[in-house]
Design brief:
The complex is a heterodimer of chains A (about 110) and B (about 110). Chain A has strands at about 5, 10-15, 20-25, 30-40, 45-50, 55-60, 60-65, 70-75, 85-90, 100-105, 105-110. With about 110 residues, chain A is mainly β. Chain B is an all-beta fold and about 110 residues long. Chain B contains no helices and eleven strands. The chains are: A mainly beta (about 110), B mainly beta (about 110). The interface of A and B includes residues 34, 95, 96, 98 and 101 of A.
Chain lengths: ~110, ~110
Amino acid sequence: GENVEQHPSTLSVQEGDSAVIKCTYSDSASNYFPWYKQELGKRPQLIIDIRSNVGEKKDQRIAVTLNKTAKHFSLHITETQPEDSAVYFCAASEMNRDDKIIFGKGTRLHILP
Amino acid sequence: DSGVTQTPKHLITATGQRVTLRCSPRSGDLSVYWYQQSLDQGLQFLIQYYNGEERAKGNILERFSAQQFPDLHSELNLSSLELGDSALYFCASTKDPRVGTEAFFGQGTRLTVV
């Protein structure tokens, strides 16, 4: 089955700097890759997603890149702000098969003042 | 508010007991997922239902079972509870997983086994 590895487990960056979180997946059939943000004590919420027919997607300060050949994808947050502090999860899914969404173990992002 | 409702929010029970967690998906969503989140752990996929039928299974223990009813709400049954089952259990729903739509999470049920 699908396995998603996520690195780093913890990341501290200075406010205003960029943060990068990387994930790899094992099942080459996976074709949908969402990213979720979970603030302390709250539910995970989707922040951006990418499908396998696209190499990069951007939404304001957030971007995701996908390398299908290497089976890895990354989340980039630019100009980080205090409200970006949270746990971020990457995930992989294969649409049209069993569709289960498999998550990485998460990255705890700390934005330092 | 995501539109996904989970009850109860908190549950404290003793080892060996059985509990039922309930999830009502967003209106119109056909698919329900169950995840377990232990302290400082990721979201462990347990099981998925689509329109009343089991669609995918993860590392769900034999002591755990689930079902989705005709009105699309789902229940996760946990039996012979152990201390290690203490965790936050999330339910999520999607409209149609075959097209890769956003999964909306409920607020979770925090289970404490004492």
